[in-house]
Structure prediction request, 385 residues.
Amino acid sequence: MQAIFYLGWSGYRLGVSVAALVGRDLVSLLDFDRRELETIFRTADKMQHFTRKCGGQLKNYVMATIFFEPSTRTRLSFETSMHRLGGSVIGFAEPGVSSVAKGETLADTIRMVESYADVIVLRHKIEGSAKFAAEIAGVPVLNGGDGSQHHPSQTLTDLYTIRKEFGEIDGRKILLLGDLQHTRSASSLAYGLGHYKGITMFLVSPQNLRMRPEITDYLDNSGVKYVEGEDPANFISQADVIYVTRLQKERFQDQKQAEALKGSYTLTRDLLERSPKDAIVLHHLPRIEEIPLEVDYTSKARYFQQAANGVPVRMAFLYLSIYHSKYHPVKNLEPRSTTSEMRRCANSNCISNQPREPITPALKEVTSKGEHVLQCQYCGRYTKE
Ligand code: CP
Prediction:
């Protein structure tokens, strides 16, 4: 159904097709097409009018934020968005204050929270947790970040910022710098950019922090040109967007390795001066030492505006997803076996490897660089046959 929707407040006419987004989860950028992304961005443009003034569009709706990892921006901007739209917020900012501390599973937690709220925002260190939660919940599940895999609301914010700064995303040259192996904002951005034409990415990282193969395979299949390298000085003069990421030390199994990589990349002011005049610097934040304070005072710094754009973008998604949606309890959810003889995903941090969650791995055969591999449909990672 195509619907031309009129926002019923302050006379603002949205005039975009919104029906396709009603009731939708936000698990991964892979689940959306370019047209749907444009609907979200056009709605975010309209939401700019309400970021300081409550519009009341989601009055009587309740959002639950359940965060199993620390957050400043994602949780608070989702909560601000819901408040600005007139709705209410429940939830927890760390699992220690919930019954998870007593041993409750994610599946049981989701079954409870869906009966209290109209939408659930989940952040979890376990990869595939948002996809799994979305299968269980009868309300939309919005992924606030799952391990090193997806961070879709961050990517919507990043793409919206690029679109705002340059007028369009097609044709942009993006230098992605830092810990590309563990940073979910980086993999998620790659998935998002695959929807656009004429994109070039310079993937610059220390050798052992390169982007994972399932993501570079996706770039190959999506027609995104990319070059991998270790020295940003070799690419910065060509970049429209310099996107810096933090070393994700909490994701390293060996903390000594994280310590050794500390300070291995920095966007200095001198380096930035070699970029084109109109280039911009983005960062998902928090930044630690990879962008020195002196860069904040250059005309190219956009990371705080980028974070601020997270409010209209999240308002837009909340509005589009839940305004007309109805609670559809998931019926006949088959209990799923956890038989030990079944072929498992090799990623111990995947939801399908959590013994108490009622889930079986969904491994699909794919080809990567001419080799047969199995790809987990929850965490996206490859397991060699
Ligand atoms: N960008 C981001 O996810 O920030 P937080 O971890 O503070 O939510």
Q: What stands out?
A: The pocket of phosphoric acid mono(formamide)ester is lined by residues 71-74, 145, 154, 284-286 (CB under 6 Å). The radius of gyration is 21 Å. The longest helix spans residues 303-322. Confidence is low (pLDDT under 50) at residues 1-13.
